[in-house]
Amino acid sequence: MKIAKNTVVTVEYKLSDAQNNLIEDGRQPMVYLHGGYENTLPKIEEELDGKETGYASTIQIEPEDAFGDYDPNLLKVEERARLPGPLEVGMQFEGLPEGGDDEEAMIFTVTEIADDKVVLDGNHPLAGMALRFELKVVEVRAATEEEIAHEHVHGPHGHHHHDEDDEGEDGEEGDHFRTHPIH
Ligand SMILES: [Zn+2]
């Protein structure tokens, strides 16, 4: 079966930066619903469209087609006391940018901890980086009607609805893969 809109694609991948430093070894393959549902990066869909099981390639994706340029305005310094403890560099919080509203909640990563101040970075950890994906298609199947309606993949491993995508779907017992390779 060829990869086309409304197929579910299983891809083994290895993610490196442009200097070939390994970022993620993809021990868990990515499983996503193909067809512009924003389940994965558009450049990956573009590369795999029309291909079949066994297809392998390596693509490089520039920051503007991945997680954007690094924006120094998204760094903020917060009072240590305003954050829950214990804190470690690398921890992530959901928060609002300065002057933002609920529509703009974003993930901040702790990048520095001083005595009473914490530096939070609202950039995606992969912002500003060119990404190199080694891809290998291992399975292609037709999506179910329910998957198409939900715009994501349902899997056999008992994953729950990812709440940010599925508000208002309470009561449905769908199983879900995490379809995005970047955490
Ligand atoms: Zn669902």
Automatic annotation (TrEMBL):
Keywords from the named record: Chaperone, Cytoplasm, Isomerase, Rotamase
Any one Gene Ontology cellular component term annotated for this protein: cytoplasm
InterPro entries from the UniProt entry: PPIase_dom_sf (IPR046357)
Compositional bias per record (Acidic residues), positions renumbered to this chain: 164-173
Domain of life: Bacteria
EC number(s) from the headed UniProt entry: 5.2.1.8
Region named Disordered: 150-183
Compartment(s) where it occurs, according to its Swiss-Prot or TrEMBL record: Cytoplasm
Catalytic activity: [protein]-peptidylproline (omega=180) = [protein]-peptidylproline (omega=0)
Composition bias, Basic and acidic residues: 174-183
GO terms of molecular function: peptidyl-prolyl cis-trans isomerase activity
Chief location bin: cytoplasm
Enzyme class: isomerase
SUPFAM superfamilies: FKBP-like (SSF54534)
Similarity comment: Belongs to the FKBP-type PPIase family.
Protein name, UniProt field: peptidylprolyl isomerase
Lineage: Bacteria, Pseudomonadati, Pseudomonadota, Betaproteobacteria, Burkholderiales
